[in-house]
Specification:
mainly alpha; 2 domains; 4 helices; flat
């Protein structure tokens, strides 16, 4: 009897499907797209700033001067370039996280969340399979080389022995 009660009991966790207002959803989708474009632009500018900071460090490394004040200047510029580069890298990671969150929200709104998740799983499986197959081929090649090493050494020794016999005659 308990089985039938649990079978026909109404589940309170299930909610009905409600129709969304398309104007609100469309405007929210457009807002998300604009924010993603803004974050992409910030990512581009931050990447350029990181490149410029690394370029300053490279120029400083290549520039040689024996002046005493140049050594102080070099240390100051090096520390500022390193701290600027590190700050921009941290900011870039934050921008990538923000873009990923915005993209997930956009995928939820447009209904592409599960398609993208399946796509990511398929790519991961293919990448993992390629890595495993490549590793197995390399390991098989190493074992083949180890297995054939005595045979190759024997052939080389026989060739040297035969060549040595022909020279003595």
């Amino acid at each position: 009897m308990q089985f039938f009660k649990t079978l026909f009991k109404k589940n309170k966790k299930i909610s009905s499907i409600s129709k969304l207002e398309t104007t609100q959803t469309d405007s929210h989708i457009e807002l998300l797209k604009r924010r993603i474009e803004e974050v992409d632009e910030k990512i581009k500018l931050t990447t350029q700033a990181i490149f410029e900071a690394q370029l300053v460090r490279l120029r400083l490394f290549l520039y040689k001067d024996s002046n005493i004040f140049a050594g102080f200047r070099r240390k100051i510029v090096e520390s500022k370039a390193a701290s600027s580069s590190q700050w921009h890298i941290n900011f870039l990671f934050a921008l990538y996280n923000e873009r990923r969150n915005l993209q997930i929200e956009l995928d939820r709104k447009t209904g592409k969340k599960f398609f993208n998740r399946i796509n990511i799983w398929i790519r991961s499986i293919i990448l993992f399979s390629c890595i495993v197959i490549t590793s197995l081929i390399i390991i098989m090649g190493i074992f083949t080389a180890i297995y054939l090493f005595p045979l190759v050494v024997l052939i080389i020794l026989l060739a040297l022995f035969i060549k040595g016999r022909n020279i003595q005659r």
